[in-house]
Specification:
Blueprint lengths: L8 E7 L3 H12 L4 E4 L7 H5 L6 E4 L7 E2 L7 H6 L2 H10 L4 E3 L4 E4 L4 H13 L3 E3 L2 E9 L2 E10 L2 E14 L14 H8 L4 E7 L3 E2 L2 H4 L9 E8 L2 E9 L3 E3 L1 H7 L8 E4 L8 H12 L4 H6 L4 H10 L13 H12 L1 E3 L3 E2 L7 E6 L17 E3 L7 E2 L4 H21 L4
Parallel strand pairs: 1-2, 1-10, 2-7, 10-20
Antiparallel strand pairs: 3-6, 4-21, 5-6, 8-9, 9-10, 11-19, 12-15, 12-18, 13-14, 13-16, 14-15, 16-17
């Protein structure tokens, strides 16, 4: 902790130097607030670093409140409206970071996610933000209108503990996803400590798994990827699906996993290019006009590995002709491909989840400032809040927008008389 004595008074202590935390600290600092940014990790922005295959899908130009899940679906509107993808793109351009649109409005760095981390670090430095990293937060308490944060930090001559005080404390510690890079339940514990409700956290944007015995017939399909329409509850997505040895993955599955509830079914259309009864009609037409084997006829309509695998599941013999199958069997085949219903037994858990659904109840927070209604000066931002975006840059946009909302509010109050 450079240049600050124990007991120093800050306008804000931001706990968590991820996307939301750095954004909040930079905005508050550049607007005149004295900010201390604390994180337990040794490497800055690790979740940013690994995102988007190392190129950071840093926003989505199509961002709208409809792309987010929450017990209060309207909560995110205010922050998203006041800091848009265009605002973040302007920041990226100002730092001369090359980027491109890859798919459905998703923006990625041309070079590396490191560019975004360096940009955020530079923005914090421009705001005079002080760093305590790596450092452990041992306690967050309150004394009157001031928060007290006990910080333990290793230094060359040993471990030093200090109590830092601030008018605001910002919890930007994220959710439980990807524990191997340091995810913890710290933010939820602090929320509960101060009397805030936490919506039960669960993995989101995560592969789905199935009972090993029930899935055994599908294991030979592992590695097959194809475009599908996937449905779970009110979630419907046209994306790619990937068969795995334990279940299903790919963008289509990651998307609907946020909508899926335990013991509920999902439905997959494995041939979305055939609308309505078109697949049934194509099979019946092939039966009447072709002398092909059933497997070869199906291969002409679907990706070969899927057609061959699905034929095996139907019990077809290699030499069996399509013309010898009854119309009813072909209609059933088309139905099985167009409306494949199955019930996952679980997910790959937080270790493979890209984000956490649930978190600090938005009913307890101000839409405008992300401040706890019953704890003036305490803000919760980013993934720790019960706001979960779709796959494709939306969660980063929530991190930027919520961080900016809290940072601006802190700066306004830091200029007011104490």
């Amino acid at each position: 902790m450079t240049g600050e004595r124990s007991g120093a008074h800050w306008d804000a202590i931001v706990i968590g130097a991820g996307a939301a935390g750095m954004m909040c600290a930079a905005v508050a600092g550049q607007r005149g607030a004295r900010v201390l940014l604390v994180d337990h990790a040794e490497k800055l922005g690790e979740k940013i670093r690994i995102s988007g295959g190392g190129r950071c899908n840093f926003t989505n130009v199509n961002t709208a409140p409809a792309h987010f899940l929450s017990n209060n679906p309207h909560f995110c509107r205010s922050a998203l409206a006041r800091y848009t993808p265009a605002d973040f793109v302007a920041l990226v351009k100002r730092h001369r970071i090359g980027f491109h649109e890859k798919h459905k409005g998703q923006l990625f760095c041309d070079e590396s996610a490191e560019d975004i981390i360096a940009m955020l670090r530079a923005e914090c430095d421009a705001g005079g933000v002080r760093w305590a990293m790596p450092a452990k937060v041992r306690r967050v308490g309150r004394s009157g209108d001031c928060f007290e944060v006990d910080i333990e930090q290793g230094q060359r001559d040993g471990t030093h503990a200090q109590t830092q005080r601030a008018r605001h404390v910002v919890i930007a510690t994220g959710g439980l996803s990807i524990p191997k890079i340091g995810a913890t339940d710290f933010g939820y514990r602090i929320a509960r400590q101060f009397g805030l409700r936490v919506i039960e956290p669960r993995p989101a944007l995560v592969p789905l798994t199935f009972d090993a015995a029930a899935w055994a017939p599908f294991v030979p399909l592992a590695g097959i990827s194809l475009p599908v329409t996937a449905r779970a509850a009110e979630g419907v997505f046209d994306e790619d699906l990937l068969f795995t040895h334990r279940g299903l993955s790919g963008p289509a599955i990651l998307q609907i996993s946020s909508y899926w509830s335990p013991n509920a079914p999902i439905e997959l259309d494995l041939a979305p290019q055939f609308v309505g009864d078109a697949l049934t009609l194509a099979l019946l037409d092939a039966k009447r006009s072709s002398r092909q084997s059933a497997i070869n006829a199906l291969c002409a309509l679907l990706p070969r590995r899927l057609a061959e695998g699905w034929s095996t599941l139907q019990g077809w013999r290699g030499e069996q002709r399509l013309a010898d199958l009854p119309d009813r069997a072909l209609r059933d085949l088309a139905q099985s491909l167009k409306r494949w219903q199955l019930v996952p037994t679980g997910t790959e858990g937080f270790r493979k989840a890209e984000v956490t659904r649930g978190g600090v109840d938005t009913d307890a927070l101000s839409q405008a400032t992300l401040e706890a209604k019953t704890q003036p000066g305490m803000h919760f931002i980013g993934e720790v809040v019960d706001v979960t975006g779709w796959l494709g840059g939306y969660n980063f946009q929530w991190a930027w927008a919520s961080g900016v909302a809290a940072g601006r509010a802190i700066a306004v109050e830091s200029r007011a008389p104490a």
